[in-house]
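Write out the 3D structure for:
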Amino acid sequence: MSLARLMVSGGAALFLLGPARALPLQGQTPQTGQTPPSGQTRPTFRSATALVEVDAVILDGQGRFVPGLVADDLRLLEDGKPQAIQQFYMVTHDASEPTHATTGETSAQAEERAHRVFVLLFDEEHLANDSLMRVKKGAEQFIHDHIGPGDIGGVFANGAMYKGRLTSDKYELVAGVHSSRPAFDNRQALLAPFREFPKIPGEVDAARITDGALDVVNTLGEQACRDDPFQCQDNGGLQQVENLIQKKARLYIRQARVMTAHTVQNLQYVTGGLSRIPGRKTVVFLSEGFFVEDSRATLELIAAQAARGGTAIYSIDGRGLINGLSPNPDVVKAETARSTAFDTGEDGPTILTAGTGGFMVRNIDDISRGFGLIVRDTSTYYVIGYQPENSVMDGKYRKIEVKPTVPGLHVRARKGYMAVALPPLQVMKGGGGT
């Protein structure tokens, strides 16, 4: 069923996601038991296919996309074993660039894939107020400049999909962006005490202290008392300073774990819902990063299942231009940079983007430019389809490698997927549509 079947006249709702909640991590669709109101379109379903699709961006040595390739220009391996490529075609949103369907697909089907699906996921608990202002401004510009005919989008803000749906209505999408509100507590605010006496270098040290590393406590306590003996004395001496270090670290880690759990649940919900839509989907994760030490395996699982469902995750660091100096909340001037001292949160977005074939955008103050890089990357790509020799969907992770046979080419594609059956595709037919 094509993405065009999603479209409805007048920019009405395209896909209802319902209230935010965690979706199962094995690809099941939650059973709500609800009956659509009279007059509302009922979803139609299609069984999942065993075909695995991989989106690939193929560049030359100058970083330019290479059109006109054929399946023989690539080798595809799953868990190190060569796989037969059964479909291969190029998708482009650029009207001046023709589609090239070479194996197993028609040009009409390739053109259907040119309709793009974007979801902007605001991670408010991990965005300082100035960072939130910055990404909202960039997101609004992205909607005005890049959401075109045939595209659909959604905004996940404040822990829920805005109006519970995807839409082609730019005004509704902008309203969704405007609805995002600062969290009561955010990560930068929770990290602020690390800069105060007695200092803690960062999250890794705080996690080690919380896990009982007394050597770290002793080292930091002694360092604090050497650097500022008057503060050390005022706080009751070395023993009390060490107690304060432990208390500060444990408080932060406890709060950080709760915030990370919210972020993980939101990612799981969005990517799980998008797996029910055919074709490639793009999630733009707007965050400053998050505490990841306890969640690496879960994030890898989310990325693997997102990849199986055809969703690529891109991340934009809301801090904009970054240096090692103190943060400045002015989001208008390019020279106002936020510090990354005490902050080691980039691993989470890295796991998500690398696992799904996306990339991270950071050190860019003009967030709309970051969106532009993502749009360019998601607008022209190749689709590689194959049926794995191991056709059993056993729930295990499988590694994918896409290698060029033509010298000088570079391929970026997702690195693997979770071998699970896809949930039934849920498509909303528009009123009066076909």
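The longest helix spans residues 238-274.
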